[in-house]
Here is the input.
Amino acid sequence: MRVVLLAGGVGGARFTRGLRELGRAEDLGLDLTVVVNTGDDLWLDALRVCPDLDTVMYTLGGVIGEQGWGRADESTRVTAELHAYGLGWDWFTLGDLDLGTHVARTELLRSGLTLSQVTARLNERWQPGATVLPMSDDEVETWVEVERDGEVTTIHFEEWWVRYRAGLPARRFVQRGVAGARPAPGVLDAIADADLVVLPPSNPVVSIGTILGVPGIADAVRSASAPVVGVSPIIGGAPVRGMADACLTAIGVETSARAVAEHYGARAAGGLIDGWLVDGADADAVAPLEQAGIATRALPLLMSDESATAAIARAALDLGTSLTATRTR
Ligand code: FO1
Here is the structure.
């Protein structure tokens, strides 16, 4: 069964790992492809840093840091040296092991490889059990227009997210480079050939929204023969982690499981999703979403441990399978 996921950082990576483990435990023959957001990427200390690609790679490789990014068993000797020279961002920690990835990626990029080729090469080492694709080989960066010290300015997403903890109201998000960006090789084919497309509980604006903003990808999802099932990143009116609420507010979407589903839209009405999973706390969203043409199921959505995550992954597969049965090709 070919499953394609459009994923950002922590939530998407954890969900993908749960789906992979479910497939292995029950011998489901899952063939997973993860299309990853690269809008968080940045040049820092002359290195190309790709937060979501690395979170997916490290999570599937079993070496993710406990905070959900960077490496486990990390140290910060090199970054301390950089800060001592007044370089880098002293509020953004590039650990020593993590820097190994950024140096390797930058060297491979400078040798002429595309981001896809570099990503495939780096993932070989970690055996992720899935095909990991950047959304595009072209540089796309999310910048955030904010008002700071009384003046309007635009800062890189990572500065907004990490330095300001999304505390400066985002006036708008600017995806620099997205207009001319092409889907990375294999992305459109994977979506077209999929038996199921999943929107995991990643940030619907700056992660999944950024992927869908690459010309061609949203249309590929809309026209996919596979059912499209999403997992709400919002439980009981709040994001499970991160600050998706600040992002949703910035685009005028209410922070609720129902509003995010409506934001993606029912595919029957020209939107993106056929199915949607909400937490039990949001069971009141089931009826209205069903009426809007989105098959909706309520179940515990907190990925508190591997078995909880596997249960959510199972529910997504089951909803997808039930929708395949009803979809005309
Ligand atoms: N997040 C933080 O909250 N603080 C950091 O210092 C930080 C450093 C960092 C370095 C590399 C990397 O790949 C991710 C890093 N992140 C950090 C997480 C990052 O902001 C998020 O993973 C995504 O950009 C949002 O999903």
Notes: The longest strand covers residues 141-148.
